[in-house]
Structures are given as structure tokens and as C-alpha cells.
Amino acid sequence: MDGSVQTQLARMPSADLRSxxxxxxxxxxEQFEQCVESIVASEREPHSARQxxxxxxxxxxx
Length: 62
Fold this sequence. Notes:
There is one protein chain. This protein has helices at 3-11, 14-44, 49-61. By secondary structure, it is an all-alpha fold. It has one domain. The longest helix has 31 residues, at 14-44. The termini are far apart. The relative contact order is 0.06. The mean pLDDT is 79.
């Protein structure tokens, strides 16, 4: 953080700091959960035999 941001934070009333923290932590939590859900959903998608066969055949050719 640069000095001006630190100065602004130091001057904020504690109630405003709590409110700002609540907003930021809620946004972070929502985005984190969306990220995890998208990863889990992509792992649940069925893979075709061709998609699975290609990496296996490439490993066998080496």
C-alpha cells in the first residue's frame, strides 16, 4: 500500500472500516465460491472416450 492509502485508512472511523471490510470480505468469499464451483463442475463433466484415449496414446508413443 502506498502512503496516501494508508493515511486515508488511518483517518476512517472504525465503523467505516468495518463496513468496508465486510463488503470486501463478502465479495472475496462470493468470488472464491464461484471459482471453486466452476472447478468442481468442470471435473464432473463426462469425458468422451476419444478425449481420454488421446493422452493415453501419446504416453504410449514416447
